[in-house]
Design a protein that fits this description.
The chain is of the alpha/beta class. Helix content is 40%, strand content 13%. The protein has one domain (3-308): Histone deacetylase domain (Arginase, Chain A, 3-Layer(aba) Sandwich). It is built from ten helices and eight strands. The longest helix has 21 residues, at 89-109.
């Protein structure tokens, strides 16, 4: 099994100041991976490329592209109260989405699975709005890219970030070709993700939200996740699985109140890999979303990557 790692130090140049989503997140992750020499040398290291405006516009409006481009060119420090940017952020955001598409290329050509270690994250970005630390929706752009370039008929997006991926849900809410599963703390930011949100029109039934109360025991969380995968597998065997891999659902994260431990992420990763093996030729792409406890984040992500490469 080959696991591709898509990363570029340019992701550190998206400067956010005194903000939870800061470059140090990727520094602690890459440090933890490099310290595991056997794992680091086993990974297939890939550089990302920027996505085109056409790639982005499969998911977002041209107006949003121009808004972010203009804000960065003018040196405006925030898109909104939560979402910090710098002069480099537009180009880095295109590179982050591009890393997710490179990971798709890898799993359809060379690697069994892949992880894109990127920032800014993406799952809150809606078709028309950047929000929640997110500029462009990396996993959504990757899903559309897989459909256009590789004919993926059924893409499953699994989001285990502590926050509901309102942007991903909105982009695919009427689309039966992309299934969106989210486990998340609820009620919590951004306020979406109730169990009654199931999709609309032809997309009805291809959104599955698992809202979890703060302090939900890890075992209950894991059981709900497993049951959701089993349910989806019966009706939507995927050609490709993309994970919005947010690690702020780990116990002790300053922006979350869920209780998962590193071993829980390892087990969930293996469950998703098994599903990918059964239906998608192993094709699984993981894209970094949240995770803000710098004391634990590196080891949590290392555990996830080690499971991918096992």
């Amino acid at each position: 099994m080959t696991t591709a790692l898509v990363y570029d130090p340019a992701f550190l140049t998206h400067k956010t100041g005194h903000h939870p989503e800061r470059p140090e997140r990727l520094k602690v992750i890459t440090s933890a991976l490099q310290q595991d020499e056997a794992l680091w040398t086993k990974l297939h290291h890939m550089a990302p490329r920027q996505v085109s405006d056409d790639d982005i516009m499969r998911c977002h409006s041209f107006r949003l592209i121009e808004q972010i481009r203009s804000l960065c060119e003018r040196g405006v420090p925030f898109v909104d109260l939560d979402t910090a940017i710098s002069a480099e952020s537009f180009e880095v955001a295109k590179l982050a989405a591009g890393a997710a598409t490179v990971a798709v290329d890898e799993v359809f050509n060379d690697a069994t699975n892949a992880i894109a270690l990127v920032r800014p994250p993406g799952h809150h970005a809606t078709s028309n709005r950047a929000m929640g630390f997110c500029l462009f929706n990396n996993v959504a752009i990757a899903a559309r890219y897989a459909q256009v370039h590789y004919g993926a008929d059924r893409v499953l997006i699994i989001d285990w970030d502590v926050h509901h991926g309102n942007g991903t849900q909105e982009i695919f809410y009427r689309d039966p070709s992309v299934f969106y599963l989210s486990t998340h703390q609820y009620p919590y930011y951004p306020g979406t993700g109730s169990a009654t949100e199931r999709g609309l029109d032809k997309g009805e039934g291809t959104t599955l939200n698992i809202p979890l109360a703060e302090d939900t025991p890890a075992r209950v969380h894991r059981d709900a996740f497993r049951d959701a995968l089993e349910s989806i597998e019966k009706t939507f065997p995927p050609d490709l699985i993309i994970v919005s891999a947010g690690f702020d659902s780990r116990r002790g994260d300053p922006l979350g109140g869920l209780m998962l431990e590193d071993g829980d992420f390892e087990e969930m990763t293996k469950q998703v890999m098994d599903m990918a093996d059964r239906h998608a030729g192993g094709r699984l792409v993981s894209v970094l979303e949240g995770g803000y406890n710098l004391d634990t984040l590196g080891e949590t992500v290392r555990t996830h990557v080690a499971a991918l490469a096992s």
